[in-house]
Write a structure and sequence with these properties.
Elements (H helix, E strand, L loop, with lengths): L1 H13 L12 H22 L4 H4 L3 H10 L4 H15 L37 H10 L3 H6 L5 E3 L5 E5 L8 E4 L5 H5 L12 H4 L5 H22 L3 H16 L13 E3 L2 H9 L5 E3 H12 L4 H9 L3
Antiparallel strand pairs: 1-2, 2-3, 4-5
Helix pairs in contact: 1-2, 2-5, 4-5, 6-10, 10-13, 10-14, 11-13, 13-14
Length: 309
């Protein structure tokens, strides 16, 4: 135990401030890297009797092979191994691991054992559960949220302000009109946290709820477009305004909101199997992606959120 504790301390001490490309990960990413690297260190100690930080870094491929044999999904293996590669500065491309495909994703899909736990039900944290169903951000973003993190965006829509989203980026999470009053009740304008640490200590599947929020947003925009012939031009203008203000690295192109986004391959088979659409209005997908997920990409939005079940 003492040796494992020593290695964990060395992981904290030696974990790089930036990745191989010179970019600094977010605090949440570093926390996850520390968690997975520590588990790897325990495995290495048990299987190879490694006693130093440096020695641990030589068995990442073996660990990957072990995870494959254990039946871990390609996405889980990637997450675990990427953390180890970051910590020991080993190029991820040097590790042979199973390819990831979105149609094989298992995160927040289907019924899992954890879903039956009492701390995974609404009663475990009712305020958080109800808020998440209207907002749809990530767990660490709820944890950091303050009671003055609410505002109107450049188009006048109510948004929850996320101080530090994925990759450390600031973002605005748009709220659908029918939820505005209920969401505003959570904010009193102070600098206090919206949720206590006790409210955040649970196993609620917030990622699945986030997918449900995205799906509800898609249906909202779809209904608006079918009932208001002028709304397509309005929604396009709102998207362009957000894009030009917060995505300056990539110039706006109207083609990103024209026509339909058609899914193919394994995802198409998955959609048909579960009675889901195989074609989506590209304007709506981009609205969901930009306003409600902050991904700015159609493929990620459809594959990981609209196809979640």
């Amino acid at each position: 135990m003492a040796n494992t504790t020593y290695i964990k301390a060395q992981i904290r001490k030696n974990m790089p401030k930036v990745n191989i490309r010179g970019k600094a990960p977010s605090t949440n990413t570093l926390t996850q890297h520390l968690k997975h690297s520590s588990k790897y260190a325990e495995w290495v100690k048990a299987n190879y009797k490694c006693r130093t930080f440096e020695a641990c870094g030589t068995h990442i491929q073996d660990y990957c092979d072990y995870l494959v044999a254990e039946g871990k999904s390609p996405s889980t293996i990637h997450t675990y191994v990427a953390a180890c590669c970051y910590t020991w500065q080993v190029p991820l491309a040097d590790i042979k691991k199973p390819a990831r495909h979105t149609h094989t994703n298992t995160r927040s899909r289907g019924i899992k054992a954890v879903d039956k736990r009492s701390d995974a039900q609404r009663d475990a944290s009712p305020r958080l559960f109800d808020f998440a169903e209207m907002v749809g951000v990530r767990r660490h973003e709820y944890l950091a949220m303050r009671q003055d993190d609410v505002m109107r965006d450049e188009s006048g829509a109510l948004c929850v302000y996320v101080r530090k989203g994925k990759g450390g980026k600031k973002q605005l999470q748009r709220i659908l009109p029918q939820h505005e009053e209920a969401v505003l009740a959570y904010f009193d304008g102070s600098n206090n946290f919206v949720f206590t640490k006790a409210e955040m200590k649970n196993k609620l599947d917030l990622h699945h709820i986030r997918a449900e929020v995205a799906q509800n947003a898609y249906r909202y925009y779809e209904n608006r477009l079918s009932s208001d012939e002028n709304y397509r031009a309005q929604l396009t203008a709102e998207l362009k305004a957000r894009w030009e203000r917060y995505n300056k690295k990539n110039p706006w192109d109207d083609r990103c909101v024209r026509g339909n986004y058609n899914i193919r391959g394994g995802n198409r088979k998955l959609a048909k199997k579960h009675g889901l659409p195989t074609s989506y209005d590209r304007l709506i997908v981009m609205a969901v992606s930009v306003f409600h997920l902050s991904h700015w990409r159609c493929d990620v939005t459809v594959d990981n959120y609209l196809l979640a079940f």
